[in-house]
Design brief:
Number of helices: 13
CATH architecture: 3-Layer(aba) Sandwich
Largest sheet: 8 strands, antiparallel
Radius of gyration: 19 Å
Shape: globular
CATH topology: Beta-lactamase
Helix content: 40-55%
Strand content: 15-25%
Number of domains: 1
Amino acid sequence: MDNPVLVEVLRGQAVESRHRGSLAVVDADGGIVLSLGDIDTPVFPRSAVKVFQALPLLESGAADRFGLTPKEIALAVSSHSGEPEHVETARGMLKKAGRDESCLECGAHWPVSGHAERALAASGKKPSALHNNCSGKHSGFICLSCGLDEDPAGYIRPDHRVQREIRAAGEEITGFNFLDEYTGTDGCSIPTYAVPLKAIALGFARVGTGIGLKPERAKAVKRIREAVAANPFMVAGTGRLDTVAMELFGERVFMKTGAEGVYCAAIPELGLGIALKADDGEGRAAQAMLAGVLHRYLPMDEATKAGFDAKAWPVLTNWNGMTVGSIRAAGALLKG
């Protein structure tokens, strides 16, 4: 059975395209609040679960050993745009651990930010691993390795202690045992594990509430949420939905995008976790789906609603700046 249509793209008043997907909304006790489509088949959450991957950094004491600031903790769970502040913050994290960018094993790519990309090219420089959107996460991995008094070389390998700690944390918070047949390699070269949406959503409900977690882990997720709410720019960058939304919502919402149409979020005040995937991997569909879920459950004042909708459900324009269409949540996502 196909997953339901959850997003429509309009040209004028007519539907031009449709996106199918699946999503789970789960409470911290594992109760299914909303289920649309297939939430049982494992999917790769990719960068959406960087909050799980950052838990050992805090729980081990490494973050405190190296004096990581809330801004740096926020960068450790980011998929940043490669803007100068992101790059320098990652560099600073490495310096605190006595390392430099040569230790990063995430690879290099041009900044996600078009402005930062053009500025870097105009300067005649090439991108380094610090510009990689995962360099904050990887700098956190290196801090973790050094905090554990381990050689960080090869920290991306599944058998390195860093990745063993990350795997254990992910399994515990989601309640799902990661299986070899559902293991792959992420874009930044670390292992990535396919997990059912309902298990990922449970993990996010626990991130939002601390319920079901040991005291040290509950403390860690609270620190991460607070760090992100205080530094939303570090999690994504100028004009990107994660940053814009968390500037608007503050600690009311913790959200994180992942590649291939994945989005996850926690709504702490309601004790809910959200995990979703657009079948076709389109980011525009995933963010429209997430917006539909947040509208369904989270009260918003008019100013917040207007600012959030403008980014999550954008008006579509052509090259002359003319409005030609829009994106909206659709189908079962609107019922309730």
